[in-house]
Amino acid sequence: MKNRKELRALEDMTLRSLKKVNDDLFMLEYHGDYSLDKLLEHGSKGILGTVAFMQKELKRTVPLNPAAGRFGCSAFNTVTERGERIMGRNFDYKESPCIILWTAPEGGYRSMSTLTSNFMLYGIKHARVDRAKRPLRLMGAPFVAMDGINEKGLAIAILEIKSKPTNQDTGKTPIIPPVAVRAVLDTCSTVEEGIAVFEKYDMHDLIGVNYHYMLADDKGASAVIEYVEGKMNVIRQKSPGERLTVTNYYLTPGADKKGGRGYDRLKNISSCLTEHPDGLSEEEAMRLLSRNTLHYHHKWMPHMVITVWSTVFDLTGRSQLTCAAMNYEKAYRFSLDKPLEYEEITLKETENGRQ
Questions:
Q1: Rounded to the nearest 10 degrees, how much is the dihedral formed by the CA atoms of 15, 16, 20, 25?
Q2: Domains defined along the chain, listed by start
């Protein structure tokens, strides 16, 4: 157990690592242990319980947003013409900057993950995300990630379903969605290992909605995990290499789809993948994401709902290509092996028009 002085030194290293790519995209490298193993042993039925745990471990107040609101989101997996496994993902939520986070937990796998600054109470898009304003909120970053990729080539993304929240009570240790995402990134190397994490815990959803999860790995496996009437269901590939697509719509046969959204996105993405059985390049996958975004004014809240980020995970190369705030002219490549570095890429249409 580190003493208070050691914790402060690691905290300071984390806060000083914050770097701005542009107004919509930031980078952060987390230093130190965020005690995932203890949290998984202790369990939590809500974000407030997770916050209380972190405050005890870090010996400081770490406020987080309980993720009220409505997600959109889309995800799919495919392969490039060179055989690289990739997974595409749109995160649709209220307009805000996003943060690419590098973590390297002791005894766990290194990963890159992405989160919205809203979850650390930075507020709307133009709120300042810096270490001078509400600095300790950044220390909660590992437990609000919405997607990511780890050093084993495993990626995971969380998506919303407009359905009754899952609150399992089977006697297992309780867990909430973003902690499940963190557990998969830190401890799993394959899709099957990721599924086993979800099977081990009782899921307790965040405010008001249900969630499902897409996983894909560098061996070509993929799966979608859903909770229907409190029971976990896994949708696996019917054959090796099959592409899966998920939006905000149940894939489980017989599940109530009345409250589902995003069937048009589900159909559009699935059709494109079917039309290109040889796969898509990373840039083509990004263009596919750009054609399936959300952008509208919230009905009863004073903010816009947009595609906050679009990411194509290279599961083979352990990197990701990301566009923020629906700017698809500029993409940024981040590598797991190069924290706080990036390559700026100008996206162009291909000659054959496939994008």
A1: -30
A2: 4-346 (3.60.60.10)
